Amino acid sequence: MINAHRLAHHLSVLAAIREADAPAHGTTRRAFTPAYLEGRQWLAARFAAAGLQVSIDAGGNLIGRLSGSDTTLPPIMIGSHSDTVMGGGSYDGALGVLGALEVAQTLNERGMRLRHPIEVVDFMAEESTPLGSLLGSTAMVAGLSDEHLARDVPGWGTLADALRRVGGDPAALKTPLRRAGDIKAYVEIHIEQGPRLERAGHALGAVTGIVGIRRADITCIGQPDHAGTASMDVRRDALAAVAQVITTAEHAALSRPGTVATVGALDVSPNQSNVIPGQVRFTVEMRSLDMHEVEAIWQEIYRAFDAACTQRQLSYTIHALHDSQPVVFAESMVATIDAACVAASGSSMRLPSGAGHDGSMIGLIAPAGMIFVRTLHGRSHCPEEYSAPADNLASVQALFETVRALDNG
Q: Which residues, 6+ apart, have CB-to-CB distance to 366 below 8 Å?
């Protein structure tokens, strides 16, 4: 029923739309860049060709709508994101968007009109950017604050300006775009980005919940000096204090099973071998299904960092402290998806997501669920990211059956 050739072709075409000055290997299509806008234009054309009504909401989310037979019913929302990390893969996000498109197009081509409308969504900026992450789904569910919209990053501009460039309307984001009851349910296909399905021998899995995430963007300010002549007792070494964060984060997470903590980005200035680091901008994030554990890790990291800065006479600023709350999916949704996965691939397993997804935001106002797809060696956010065509096809078939079940149930 699902057009496997069209799905594979669409994945290939979108993967080839990438930033010209990015690494040669992998796919780089970061939100707000010209390549991202090119990919968005291509997706909008595919949405229209599939018979969907195409629009961009105030949060910059690209939406294709297929009408239902009952105009009083809220839509069933399906989709994911088309932005990537630097040097990423061809399936993270893209499979969810194009798989959702394939479901809507199949329904339309076969004249199968559901009671509920279907909305295929390409969420704005799911991946981390200097301006934030989960931007489109956050705007949809909670709106965006004036402070967030005014955030100004060199080379990126303000978030408000960036949203205008992609067709959004920052002035309309003071309040949520959708509220409880506005969406019947949300379902997303996504590669697992981990090894559990592959190790267990399952092509598909039903996600039980999404971890909560706290991410902080911090600048530590010291004093650059000569690496040979400045004695150790007078140094104001910013990187030395940040090193304390790295080791504290690792130890704090290791002592709490089921949690993780990462310092994933460092910008060291002046970044020379013979100069003491005078400034370091870095990110630190913590993840767990239990937000109390996330808070505990953050407090442990913050205390250690503050003490290290005080000892070295350093200052620091916290530019952004972003939380996404953990979401546990309803058992009825997990069971529906699990049954669809078994029907499509012959087996399934239930598992949580250690990565953040737009479903963690939409799940705050509507029943949400996810279909995980087996990922080769669990690799993701890299050029080696891969999910087999047969598994991709099975995931779209499972989404198709899930949507029909939700429409009837």
A: 77, 180, 182, 183, 184, 185, 186
Give the C-alpha separation, 51 to 153, whole Å.
Answer: 38
4-211+326-408 has which fold? Aminopeptidase (3.40.630)
Cβ contact 27:81 at 8 Å? no
Mean pLDDT of 22-41: 93
Q: Which residue has the tokens 């058992």?
A: 331
Q: Which two tokens stand for residue 335?
A: 């069971």
For residue 265, the one-letter residue type is A
What is the distance, to the nearest Å, from the Cα of residue 38 to the centroid of all Cα atoms in its chain? 20
CATH 3.30.70.360 fits 213-324, yes or no: yes
| Residue whose entry in the numeric block shows the structure tokens 């913050």 | 302
CB 277 within 8 A of CB 315: no
* Dist CA 2 CA 269 (whole Å): 52
Q: What is the pLDDT of residues 148-165, one digit of tens each?
A: 999 998 889 999 999 999
Q: What is the DSSP letter of 213?
A: E
Residue-range domain boundaries for the chain: 4-211+326-408, 213-324
Position 251 confidence tier, pLDDT thresholds 50, 70, 90: very high
| H helical segments located in 92-169 | 94-109, 135-142, 146-149, 159-165
Q: Which residue's structure tokens are 């489109």?
A: 136
What is the number of residues in the chain? Answer: 409
pLDDT in tens, 263-276: 989 999 999 999 99
